Amino acid sequence: MRARGPAVILLITCVLGPHVTCQDHTEEEEHDKQPAGPGHHHWSYQDILEWDKDYPECGGKAQSPIDVDTQHTVFDAQLRPIQLSGYNLSTAETLELENNKHTVVLKLPGTMKIIGGLPEIYQAAQLHFHWGSKSNPGSEHMVNGRRFPGEIHVVHYNSEYTSVEKAANHSGGLAVLAAFIEKGPDYNEGYEPLLSHLEAVKDGGQITEIPGFDISRLLPQRLDRYFRYNGSLTTPPCLQTVNWTIFNQTIRLSETQLDLLEDTLHHDHDQLLQENFRDPQKLNGRNVLSSFKAPVLGRKAAGEGEVM
What we know:
This protein is mostly beta strands. It has helices at residues 25-31, 51-54, 164-167, 192-195, 255-263, and strands spanning 67-68, 74-75, 83-85, 94-99, 104-107, 113-116, 122-131, 142-143, 146-147, 150-158, 174-183, 207-211, 226-231, 242-247, 251-253, 289-290. The protein has one domain (25-290): Roll (Carbonic Anhydrase II), CATH 3.10.200.10. The strands form two sheets. Strands 2, 3, 4, 5, 6, 7, 10, 11, 12, 13, 14, 15 and 16 form a 13-stranded mixed beta sheet that branches. A three-stranded mixed beta sheet has the order 1-8-9, with no helix packed on it. The chain starts with 24 loop residues before the first helix and ends in an 18-residue tail after the last strand.
């Protein structure tokens, strides 16, 4: 679908790169009004090869996701553990959960922050998921050619800006914490406060409110081992302003929980919402940093719940 003018509203989804400039004040103002979740209209995963026609950034040189080749990552001793603040929310606080026909989005309060592991303080905006189907894994990022069943993205924005929409137009304005989801033998109680409400947003466009809970339990326990690179939002408008952190430790859901994520939500015409992921993009000379030293090839296999 073609954009109808310079003031067209571009819709943001998940998550760093060169400075993005707007052509005029009208367009910049419209950019600043964009919602913080994955886009609601104008594009689909069926026309993914056409995204760059309406959203030129999608054809840029610093796109996401990527396939992390662990033998070519660069160890950086200055990458410190990710430190979170305000993630354990009270049940008295209500959060908005939405099926926007592309994914399920949980809006987060700005009191949730990343206070360590990045050069600036970043405030939370939202989290969402990417998944596949029983026959096709659906993580966006890959590691050594391996795709995982699913992936969580927790989107934050640089606190020097007044909103996630304003931050998205500036280099390093966004920071996304990403973690892979795979099947495990046990029920993951940390995911119950979210997964138990998916039925309430089963149909595309539905919104419900859920009680606050400890959002940190949706992420891996180890926040010190991760990959870091500069990239983009993985859906239109694909703005290249995202600082990506991909954790080495995976999240494990039971088979029942994974089925719930893959088989509950619908988009248009009562069709299951599945395989909502973009394939890896070229690095084009970008470095992928690692907060830990990669094992010598052949000497140490990845441990349980780790990608390497």
